[in-house]
Design brief:
Layout: H1 16-20, E1 30-34, H2 43-50, E2 56-61, E3 64-67, E4 76-77, E5 87-92
Antiparallel strand pairs: 1-5, 2-3, 2-5, 3-4
The protein binds zinc ion (ZN).
Pfam family, one: VldE
Organism: Pseudoduganella armeniaca
Region (Disordered): 1-33
């Protein structure tokens, strides 16, 4: 997907400091995607797109969080220290993580 995109904040596992904190990344149940609209990855769009997948538990993007377990509340303010304005965070339901069907963005052209 989007071969020329910026991958600066992409990742599954956090760095050493991050691994000391409680995080879905430490269990391999989360990934980050770098916001790079010039190269096809506009997280304003992707944050909504990933929510179409039933494996996603919550998304943090641009100082907002969407938890699929309380979808009726929609996007709510996120007050974490990192506002996630340069990358979005996607957490996956642990019980569904091994389902290998394609993600909604797998066939997107950039
Ligand atoms: Zn993250």
């Amino acid at each position: 997907m989007c071969p020329n995109r910026n991958r600066e904040a992409d990742g599954l596992m956090g760095d050493a400091a991050h691994q000391k904190r409680k995080s879905d990344h430490n269990e391999g149940n989360a990934f980050d995607l770098t916001h790079d609209p010039a190269n096809g990855v506009d997280c304003h769009f992707f944050a909504k797109l990933v929510l179409l997948d039933y494996r996603v538990s919550y998304v943090i993007w641009n100082r907002q969080i969407y938890n699929t377990a309380s979808a009726g509340e929609g996007w709510r303010p996120y007050h974490g220290r990192n506002g996630h304005t340069h990358h979005m965070h996607v957490s996956i339901k642990a019980a569904l993580r091994d389902i290998a069907s394609p993600w909604p963005w797998a066939s997107l052209e950039c």
